[in-house]
Design a protein that fits this description.
- This protein is mostly beta strands.
- It folds into 4 domains: about 5-175, Collagenase (Catalytic Domain) (3-Layer(aba) Sandwich); about 185-360, no CATH class; about 370-475, Immunoglobulins (Immunoglobulin-like), CATH 2.60.40; about 480-575, Immunoglobulins (Immunoglobulin-like), CATH 2.60.40.10.
- Helices cover about 10% and strands about 45% of the residues.
- It has 5 helices and 37 strands.
- The strands form 8 sheets. The protein has a 7-stranded mixed beta sheet, with helices on one face.
- α1 (about 65-85) links the parallel β4 (about 45-55) and β5.
- The chain starts with a strand and ends with a strand.
């Protein structure tokens, strides 16, 4: 079945849906890229709420609450516990079945989520207590998937469109809920890697995030989840020098290295690194599915993955001369040579306890690159002139791995007469460091927003430089503009006076404004109000025709925010 891939750029959190069609093929819609840093909140107990729902024209209940509980909190939880080496597990509840007032002839995921949540809440479920919300319903043709999920989320949301809830679907979709993308394959026949390659979404045969069989997540995915190489997790070995390295059986618990990570390439522009990930599978636990696959069990599986892209897990075919992916491992006695990276990988031996691998790394040439620079915060708070203010300048060394560590000179470009310190960072290729740059304006500098540019220059090659800008805001007072709604009123009307509070032309919200209205006879009425998002506060007064005098009325205003004061005034006249 042909696999289809649709990519869209979504907003801040990269939500999408990922689906397994009943016929076994996959399709997807997702953000094209996310950073590959270790994902947050992936260990410990994860609370899952499974809500079973059906439709007004399809009120079947293809499985029981007990069956759903068993799959979610026994089978799938045990799968996650084993994959994470005991660090992550699932608990929670199953509610339902509930009949939704919608038809099964359309696939309205938003409506399904809304009605499922309403029904569970009415039954007493506290939706805010769960990390993942799962909506499970009888399989309908209108939804062309078996499972669908957000990428991460708090909570994440999963839609299960099957007549029997299963680990294969639920485990895969919860992987998306934890923040993972799919595991792909890359076929560059007749080469292992090359420029003319076919990438297959869901193509990884050895990962539940690929073909959705109940097999372990691959090493790149586990590193993203923090299940290896983080905290109390088992280690993986990042290989930087030639040698012979041991990889423990991938699935078993323990403190030995669960795989190897070898540098493949460095992006000359961004400095992002792509790695070879090596692992050795056995038939332990859920990977017993691999029983009988001699090549898989007898060799080393190789993937690639990139630092800056969570959607970059690719299974490589180490035997591109054959069509099968089940002999794609690097077997004992076989070598793979990447001349561009200067890396040779040779499997020496492999059994049910682990594998020995020899890695040879040639000296790499040095290619200097522009660093990556960022500033925090992008804008200061309100500062009195003469106040020193510290910005954090973060620098990443994008030089190639063959380069020696470099000194980066941190400099500032500020308005004439201002002062700023300089600093130096020593960074190895690929490393990131930060320093504080304190900027100060002269006393008496006029109020305004001033641009501060901070830069970092690689002193090993001074044309390699980068900069970023921030704002230094000098504010000595609040600006206030008062205005009545009319210049004249009769005593049968109501007068309204607005006070607009701004700083450097921008409205100030949540500022308390005091109003003092002096009548024509000298008596005073006071009131207060708080500015809205537009910086405006209002005072209204209904005149008393018998007691309020005619003549000129004066209104004075005052506001104080964060040590700053502003005042204003206006007037109007009152006639009979």
């Amino acid at each position: 079945m042909k696999k289809s891939i649709a990519r869209v750029v979504l907003g801040l959190f990269a939500l999408g849906y990922f689906v397994f069609s009943p016929g076994g093929g996959w399709s997807s819609a997702a953000s094209f890229k996310v950073l590959a840093a270790t994902l947050p909140n992936t260990t410990g107990e994860h609370k899952v709420l499974v809500i079973l729902v059906n439709f007004k024209d399809l009120q079947t209940q293809p499985y029981t609450v007990a069956q759903a509980q068993d799959v979610a909190f026994n089978t799938t939880s045990n799968f996650y516990r084993e994959n994470s080496y005991g660090q992550t597990w699932l608990t929670g509840d199953v509610y339902g079945w509930y009949t939704m007032p919608i038809s099964s002839t359309s696939c309205d995921k938003s409506a399904i989520a809304t009605y499922a949540q309403q029904a569970a809440s009415k039954a007493g479920a506290n939706l805010g207590a769960y990390n993942h919300l799962v909506y499970a319903f009888p399989q309908i043709a209108a939804c062309g998937f078996s499972g669908s999920s957000t990428i991460g989320g708090s909570p994440s949301e999963e839609w299960i469109n099957t007549d029997m809830i299963s680990l294969e679907v639920l485990g895969h979709e919860l992987g998306h809920g934890f923040g993972l993308y799919h595991s792909h394959s890359m076929d560059c026949r007749p080469y292992v890697v090359g420029t003319n390659c076919t990438v297959t979404d869901y193509g990884d045969k050895f990962d539940i995030m690929g073909v959705s069989m109940p097999e372990h997540f691959d090493l790149f995915q586990k590193e993203r989840l923090g299940w290896v190489n983080a905290g109390l997790s088992p280690p993986l070995t990042t290989v930087t020098v030639s040698g012979t390295y041991w990889m423990d059986a991938y699935e078993t618990p323990g403190t030995a290295s669960k795989g190897l990570k070898v540098l493949k390439s460095v992006d000359p522009t961004t400095g992002a690194r792509t790695w070879y990930y090596l692992e050795h599978r056995t038939t332990y636990g859920f990977d017993s599915y691999l029983t009988g696959y001699t090549y898989v069990l007898g060799g080393v599986i190789v993937h690639t993955g990139s630092d800056d892209n969570g959607d970059s897990s690719y299974l490589l075919d180490m035997t591109p001369g054959t069509l099968s992916w089940y002999d794609s491992t690097l077997m004992p006695g076989q070598s793979y040579i990447d001349t561009g990276a200067g890396v040779t990988i040779t499997t020496l031996s492999a059994d049910n306890t682990g594998a020995w691998v020899q890695i040879s790394i040639n000296a790499q040439p040095c290619a200097r690159a522009n660093p990556t620079v960022s500033i925090s915060p992008a804008q200061s708070g309100w500062l009195v002139s003469g106040t020193p203010y510290s910005y954090t300048l973060t620098v990443k060394n994008n030089d190639s791995v063959g380069c020696s560590p470099a000194d980066f000179s941190a400099q500032s470009a500020v308005p004439s007469g201002w002062s700023a310190n300089a600093a130096t960072l020593n960074l190895a290729p690929g490393a990131t460091g930060s320093t504080q740059i304190a900027v100060s304006s002269p006393v008496g500098t006029a109020d305004g927003n001033y641009v501060v540019a901070l830069s970092a220059t690689n002193l090993s090659d001074v044309i390699r430089t980068a900069s970023a800008a921030a704002t230094y805001s000098i504010v000595s007072k609040l600006n206030m503009i008062d205005a009545p709604s009319a210049s004249k009123y009769t005593r049968t009307q109501k007068a309204t006076v607005t006070a607009t509070v701004t700083v450097l032309g921008a409205p100030v919200a949540n500022a308390k404004v005091s109003f003092a209205m002096t009548k024509a006879d000298g008596s005073i009425i006071t009131s207060s109000a708080t500015t809205g998002a537009n910086g405006v506060a209002s005072f209204a007064y209904a005149f008393n025709k018998r007691s309020d005098p005619i003549g000129t009325y004066k209104v004075a205003t005052e506001s104080k925010v964060s040590g700053l004061t502003g005042s204003g005034s206006t007037s109007f006249s009152v006639t009979k």
